[in-house]
Amino acid sequence: MVLAITVAPFVTGFIAHHVASDHELWLILHVICGEILLIAIPFTKLSHFVLFFMSRAQLGMDYGIKRGGMKGKGFAW
User: Fold this and answer.
1) Single pTM value for the model
2) How far apart are CA 69 and CA 61, in angstroms?
3) Most CB contacts within 10 A, which of 1, 51, 71, 76?
């Protein structure tokens, strides 16, 4: 189900761009599929795609500070 939710905006967008007939229907379906994807992100493992980079940045800052990488930079830690 998650794979279908992820692929649907790409497929409907491709169809909306390349199909000459009934363009508005495919455009509306494309927008609805994109909204469903955005709603599903926090409730599925799709959130790991975004949160992975945030956690890596936080860990890098934490370990850099603990090892003395940020000495004299004004951090209160």
Assistant:
1) 0.63
2) 9
3) 51
